[in-house]
Amino acid sequence: MVAAYFLTIVAAFLTTVCNDPPSVINAHRNSLRISVIVVWVIAAGVPALVAGLAKVRERATLPWVVAAVAMVGVGLAIALTIRPSTWCLF
Q1: Region of residue 87 (left: phi > 0; alpha: psi -120 to 50; beta: else)
Q2: Where are the domains of the chain?
Q3: Is 69 in contact with 40 (CB distance < 8 Å)?
Q4: Going by C-beta distance under 8 Å and a sequence separation of 6 or more, which residues neighbour residue 90?
Q5: In whole numbers, what is the pLDDT of the chain averaged over residues?
């Protein structure tokens, strides 16, 4: 989960806008949203994989499934509310 937060910050930094027209800002926002969703879905694959391994070993899978669903939910919430950053380096 920490890695997903870090990659979200990296994606926000890479889609920085600085005094750009609205069309460019919208393109960056859509790119940022897609990046964030991909990062969090991949991150949710880790607890989903553990849940699959737990099922094979006949252990409890519910906590891992809940963790995976929660991670996807967090990613979607971030993606729907995120805006491109305005960090100007020049």
Answers
A1: beta
A2: 2-81
A3: no
A4: 18
A5: 90
Residue 72, token pair as written in the block: 């996807």
DSSP class of 17? -
| pTM, entire model | 0.84
Helix (H) or strand (E) holding 58: none
Residue with tokens 């890695």: 3
Per-residue confidence (pLDDT) for residue 90, from 0 to 100: 56
Contact 90, 21 (CB under 8 A): no
The DSSP secondary-structure symbol of 20 reads -
pLDDT score for 16: 83
- Residue 45 tokens read as 């694959």
| Burial readout 53-63 (b: 16 or more C-beta within 10 A, e: otherwise) | ebeeeeeebee
CB atoms under 10 Å from CB of 52, counted, come to: 14
Higher pLDDT, 61 or 89: 61
